[in-house]
C-alpha cells in the first residue's frame, strides 16, 4: 500500500454506501419521484455514492418541515443561552467526527486532506464556536422619540432583533462543509430554521452535518438538507413563499436569478458571488514572500476560491523576478489525489470544471498569452489541471476579465501606484484584493482606493469569523461573518410605548 495515501475510515465507507435521502423533520426521506444523483470522486472520476434528486414537490415538503419547526418555537423559543450551549455542543460533535468529515470532503470535492482537516473542518469548527456566542449577544437599542401627538403624550421606543424565519442556504461546491456552516450557524444563533441546499457535485458533508446537528440536540426540522439540482430544487427553494431569507454563495449569474426569486417574495437575501481578485506587488517587496503569497492565494484549493488571487500585478522593477519564481514554483508542484499526503495540486471538482478551466487557457493562448508553466490537463484519470502561470496578456483579454476558478495565475506589470489602482479596480467584480508593500504611506493611500470587500496587506486569503466578508459590485450583496452575518438573519422591529 502507498504510505502517502490516507487510509479511508470504516465510517466513511459506511456513509458512502448509505441510501441517502433528504433530511426532513429529522428523518431521511426519499425524493417523491425516486430520482437519484450520482456523486463522484474527482481524483478518479468513479461514482462513490448517490443522493436523492429532489423536485419542486419535495421542496414543498422540506420547506414545510422548516416552517413547522420555526412556528413551533422549538428553536426560536429557547433561551439564547440554550441555543448557544447546543451550538457549542455541535462544535464538539463535529470535532469528534473531524477526520471522518475531512475524508468525506476530500473524497467528494477533491481537495487536499491537509486543507480539509485545517480549513474545511478545523476553521469551520472555530466558526461554529465563534458564532454560537452571538446567540447571547443579540441586542436592540432604546431611543428617545419626539412624537408630538396627542398633546402632552410621552413615548419610549426600542428595537428588537427577531429571527427572520425560514432560511434557504444555497451552498457551492468549492468549500461545501465550511460554507454550509457559514450559513447554518448564524441562522441558528439568531433563532431561524434552515433548509441547506448543497451543490449537486458535493452533497455529502451537508448530509452528515444535518445528522450531526440532530446528535448535538438541535430539534428535528430545524436543520433540513435538500439535495437536488440547482436549476430545479435550488430554483424552487429560492422562490418558495415560506422562505424568508435566502443566503447564496456561487456564480454571479445564478446569484442574480436567486436574488430576483427572493425579491419576488420580498424575502431577504445575501449573495456572495465571484471575484477576479487583484494582488498588487509593489517595487519594495521581498520577492520570495510575494511569490509565496501568490502561490498560496492563487493555488489554494486549485484556485477554486472566490477570493483567490488571480490577477497578479507586479511593479515592472520586480516583474521578471517574480514571474520567473512563480513559474518555477508552479512547475515543481506535485500533482495527485487529495488523499495523497504529498500532493500539492489536486483535482478540480468535476469534469465540467476541468473543461472550463482548460478552455480559458486555450483562449488565453489564442489571445497571445505566454504559458510559463502548466497549460493543460494533467495526464491522470481524474479532473486534474496543471498549475498554470500566464504572462504577456492584455488587460482587456478574457482571462483577465472573467473568473476562471482554477489553478491559473495571470501576471501583468505596472509602472505607478495610480496605474496599479486603476488596473485593480477595472473589473466588474469587487470581492477581495491584496497590497504587497512595506511602504506604510503607500499602503495607507492605496487601501481606501481599492473597490473590494476585503483588502489584505502582505498576505492574501486569510479569513476570520470576526472579520466581515462579502463583495462590492458584481461580487455580491451583504456580508458574512461577525455581527453583520448574525444581523442578516434578523428582522428589526421597532416598539413604541405610550405612557
Ligand atoms: P452555481 O452558481 O451554478 O452553483 C452554486 C449553487 O447554486 C449550487 O448549489 C447550485 O446547485 C445552485 N444553483 C444552480 N442554479 C440554481 C438556480 N437556478 N437556483 C437556485 N440555485 C441554483 O455555480 P457552478 O457550480 O455552476 O460554478 C460555476 C462558476 O461559478 C464557477 O466556475 C465559479 O466561477 C463560480 N463559483 C463561485 C463560487 C464562490 O465561492 N463565489 C463558488 C462556486 C462557483 P447545483 O450544484 O445543484 O447546480
From TrEMBL:
Keywords: Oxidoreductase. Residues 34-495 form the Aldehyde dehydrogenase domain. Coiled coil: none annotated. InterPro entries: Ald_DH/histidinol_DH (IPR016161), Ald_DH_C (IPR016163), Ald_DH_CS_CYS (IPR016160), Ald_DH_CS_GLU (IPR029510), Ald_DH_N (IPR016162), Aldehyde_DH_dom (IPR015590). The keyword Oxidoreductase applies. It holds the Pfam family Aldedh. The active site is at residue 272. Belongs to the aldehyde dehydrogenase family. This is Aldehyde dehydrogenase family protein.
